[in-house]
């Protein structure tokens, strides 16, 4: 998931900013994060030498947020193990977390800013780099308006404090409508369905993994991904515990994944047809009188409308499209209804598909119809320590879609964002409103978005580009200025996004484990300086940014009759804030204003975290719909249902492609860590034996795969783990472009699966690219 501009509660989640004027809701301090507070120490890791100390660090490499214990010699991370005392992860660690030290010390990481001179990137001082940004971007904005600046936010923004705190401020300062994030390659359908159902795009219910009796898991593979939009360290262990306590697990996936192998039932659906399956499950619940919404009867409106709208989606009607047996669909519905508690949960395979928003909506519809939304054992809304403190339920403003559209192909915005799939055309197409300068923070769209070759060319045609990225990679190689953040051991960590998506309420903070290296700049300060450079305040002290945010947030809080600080003196409240940097003071403020009234000091005193208890029901308080109820059949959803009905009769493509994630991968950027690249983590095309025979492909042969956007040539791996008619290729590979500085990744580059796409296939409501279940042709080379 991607990055949160809408305020630090996003998803994958973090893939997601929003354009609501950057919430000064959280903020500030005195800027420059040069002196991290002393790292707290823990008993040294076993086997550690005499000069070794240890420090705790929350792992930033996936959504599970495990606590790590780092062994440190001098300033080098020499060992990593799971922190057994961590209140949430209790010692769990995976191979990625174990490679934290190697990643931290990667010699290919940039250690100084780069600026382009006479076409070549050269090392530069921070001063030079920011001077250049201020000098080049402001004139473009003054001449062409704010939309001349495009902002691209990638996934790691949800994994850093800087990415949680500054993008909203940046967006507020630049006020461009050209905002693109990894969300439209990921979880935007979930934001849209939540926006429509609950009135808040960030109200995402998560499965109550530790208490549920039945988990219906759609298009997710947490045994490799470690979970998404469901933060749960040791997801595999939690699934095994579900089985041990007599619960059941059903997995819907066209591949027999490691997660599917753990399940009681594996449903190998034809890709892209989950919305049909889910509609049929709801249909069975209605037809057989199995609905039992309980207290949701009062809290939700439109249950009868949903019944009418789904009338045609019988198991028989969807069976051919899904390639499933209608009796199996009935059984699944009955099992769901019969379980004392159950949770329906979907991820990438349910989102990045043609009917992603409908599938995301139907998942919640099923949870409502079975009474499982907002009850223990079902799906619940977390309440994180930096969320807004609960207040009396009241109708809200609702959620609007399509408030503006993209300039070239008229795609509607969702959550303030335009589809990443249209970024290239917005740069290439001349005219007023064209993107002339691009700021890319922690993003690699050349590999992660459709048609990287086209984007590659488009980026070359920009008048100016900034990348905030530790690597010179496929995307940042186009930048005129590259601003590298420090290695992760040198940054403090707090999970703004994932605490709000966690299966248990808890809160943890880890200060920087080692001091900031001479010559590097904390990413919070980098982004604060970027805000200044882009808003005409270049040269001001970066603490001004945090002070501004703090001032605005406290002014709002003291004026709010529901706030615990109502009527107090904002200057006094600001003076009370603690923290070694502006970012930390902003965190302290958010904690103080939050539902548990904690302070940063509380977190520092509890280095292994504070457990805040199991998830609890939050309806109706969380609702922001105009009706003040869950609006179960929102207009835009009803309007999209005819498209789903058409899919009932569509002739399926002979061969479609789906992705896959490997445990030791992370999108496009961990292939440069030797321990994570190689072995079974390979860029191969998985083909079912029957398809391989038909296509005359042998194991290890090279195949040419062709889609709308181009062709790639890739080694074949024959396996019956994929179902017939489906091939699978992982994403994030294709490190063979010139000018990148990724010595390990470039030696085993793999191919870019997204070159098979041209960006024309999207889920229309959310603008999310169809990255799974698209037609391809495969032939021997
Ligand atoms: N075909 C296909 N395509 C996909 C997907 C798929 O399943 N199939 N998945 C999609 C999903 S879910 C996502 S989230 C996107 C991800 O898409 P992106 O966010 O564009 O890609 P990442 O590979 O996560 O790249 C992140 C960039 O951040 C940099 N980085 C790492 N750490 C930091 C840091 O601390 N600070 C900063 N500033 N930069 C950092 C890395 O060097 C890298 O350049 O990819 C999407 N693309
Ligand atoms: N090791 C590792 N962990 C990661 C990442 C990584 O790259 N590597 N990336 C992180 C990110 S950014 C994210 S968003 C999460 C994603 O977390 P997950 O969604 O759990 O991860 P995926 O492996 O993409 O799982 C998607 C599954 O959907 C299946 N699928 C494909 N098409 C369909 C379909 O049409 N219907 C159904 N039912 N299933 C389908 C695929 O076969 C695959 O098994 O993982 C995060 N964690
Ligand atoms: S599961 Fe995720 S958070 Fe935990 S150690 Fe592995 S990569 Fe890090
Ligand atoms: Mo993601």
TrEMBL record:
Q: Which UniProt keywords apply?
A: 4Fe-4S, Iron, Iron-sulfur, Metal-binding, Oxidoreductase
SUPFAM superfamilies assigned: ADC-like, Formate dehydrogenase/DMSO reductase, domains 1-3
Biased composition (Low complexity) is annotated at 8-19, 32-42
Superkingdom of the source species: Bacteria
The 4Fe-4S Mo/W bis-MGD-type domain, residue ranges:
52-108
Region Disordered, residue ranges: 1-51
SMART domains for this protein: Molybdop_Fe4S4
Q: Tell me the protein's name.
A: Molybdopterin oxidoreductase family protein
């Amino acid at each position: 998931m991607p990055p949160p501009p809408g305020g630090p509660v996003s998803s994958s989640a973090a893939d997601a900013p929003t354009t609501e004027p950057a919430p000064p809701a959280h903020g500030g301090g005195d800027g420059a994060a040069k002196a991290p507070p002393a790292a707290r120490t823990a008993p040294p890791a076993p086997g550690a030498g005499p000069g070794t100390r240890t420090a705790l660090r929350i792992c930033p490499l996936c959504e599970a947020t495990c606590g790590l214990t780092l062994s440190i010699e001098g300033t080098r991370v020499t060992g990593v193990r799971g922190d057994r005392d961590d209140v949430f992860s209790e010692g769990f660690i995976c191979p990625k977390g174990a490679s934290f030290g190697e990643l931290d010390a990667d010699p290919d990481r940039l250690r100084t800013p780069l600026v382009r001179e006479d076409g070549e990137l050269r090392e530069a001082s921070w001063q030079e780099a920011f001077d250049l940004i201020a000098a080049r971007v402001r004139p473009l904005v003054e001449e062409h308006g704010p939309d001349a600046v495009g902002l691209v936010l990638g996934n790691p923004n949800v994994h850093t404090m800087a990415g949680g705190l500054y993008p909203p401020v940046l967006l507020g300062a630049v006020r461009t409508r050209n905002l693109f994030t990894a969300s439209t390659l990921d979880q935007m359908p979930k934001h849209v369905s939540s926006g429509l159902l609950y009135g808040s795009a960030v109200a995402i219910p998560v499965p109550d993994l530790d208490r549920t009796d039945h988990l219906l898991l759609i298009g997710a593979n947490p045994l490799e991904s470690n979970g998404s939009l469901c933060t749960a360290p040791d997801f595999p262990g939690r699934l095994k515990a579900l089985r041990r306590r007599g619960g059941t697990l059903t997995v819907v996936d066209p591949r027999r994944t490691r997660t599917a192998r753990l399940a009681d039932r594996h449903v190998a659906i034809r890709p892209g047809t989950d919305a049909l399956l889910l509609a049929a499950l709801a249909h069975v619940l209605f037809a057989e009188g199995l609905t039992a919404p309980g207290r949701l009867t009062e809290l939700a409106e439109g249950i009868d409308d949903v019944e009418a709208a789904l009338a045609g989606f019988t198991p028989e009607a969807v069976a051919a499209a899904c390639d499933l047996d209608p009796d199996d669909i009935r059984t699944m519905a009955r099992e769901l209804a019969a379980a004392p508690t159950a949770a329906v949960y979907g991820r990438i395979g349910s989102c990045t598909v043609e009917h992603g928003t409908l599938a995301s909506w139907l998942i919640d519809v099923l949870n409502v119809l079975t009474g499982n939304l907002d009850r223990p054992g079902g799906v619940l809304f977390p309440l994180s320590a930096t969320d807004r403190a609960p207040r009396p339920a009241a109708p809200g403003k609702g959620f609007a879609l399509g408030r503006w559209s993209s300039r070239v192909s008229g795609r509607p915005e969702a959550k303030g964002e335009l589809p990443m799939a249209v970024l290239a055309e917005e740069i290439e197409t001349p005219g007023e409103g064209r993107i002339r300068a691009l700021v890319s923070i922690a993003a690699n769209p050349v590999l992660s978005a459709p048609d990287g070759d086209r984007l590659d060319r488009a980026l070359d045609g920009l008048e100016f580009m900034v990348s905030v990225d530790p690597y010179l990679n496929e995307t940042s190689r186009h930048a005129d200025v590259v601003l590298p953040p420090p290695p992760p051991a040198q940054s403090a960590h707090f999970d703004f996004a994932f605490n709000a998506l966690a299966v248990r309420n808890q809160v943890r903070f880890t200060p920087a484990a080692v001091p900031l290296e001479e010559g590097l700049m904390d990413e919070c300060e980098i982004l604060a300086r970027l805000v200044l450079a882009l808003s005409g305040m270049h040269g001001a002290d970066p603490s001004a940014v945090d002070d501004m945010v703090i001032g605005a947030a406290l002014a709002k809080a003291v004026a709010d009759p529901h706030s615990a600080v109502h009527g107090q003196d904002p200057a006094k409240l600001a003076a009370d804030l603690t923290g070694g940097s502006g970012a930390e003071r902003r965190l302290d403020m958010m904690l103080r204003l939050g539902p548990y009234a904690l302070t940063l000091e509380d977190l520092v005193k509890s280095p292994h975290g504070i457990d805040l208890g199991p998830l609890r029901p939050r309806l109706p308080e969380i609702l922001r719909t105009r009706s003040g109820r869950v609006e179960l059949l929102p207009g835009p959803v009803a309007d999209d249902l005819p498209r789903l009905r058409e899919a009932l009769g569509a002739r399926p493509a002979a061969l479609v492609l789906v992705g896959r994630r490997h445990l030791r991968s992370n999108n496009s950027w961990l292939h440069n860590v030797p321990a994570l690249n190689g072995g079974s983590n390979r860029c191969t095309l998985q083909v079912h034996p029957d398809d391989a025979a038909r296509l005359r492909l042998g194991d290890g042969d090279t195949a040419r795969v062709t889609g709308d956007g181009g062709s790639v040539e890739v080694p074949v791996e024959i396996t019956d783990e994929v179902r017939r008619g489906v091939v699978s290729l992982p994403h994030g590979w294709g490190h063979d472009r010139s000018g990148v500085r990724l010595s390990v990744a470039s030696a085993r580059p793999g191919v870019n699966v997204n070159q098979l796409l041209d960006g024309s296939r999207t889920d229309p409501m959310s603008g999310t690219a169809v990255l799974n279940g698209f037609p391809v042709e495969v032939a021997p080379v």
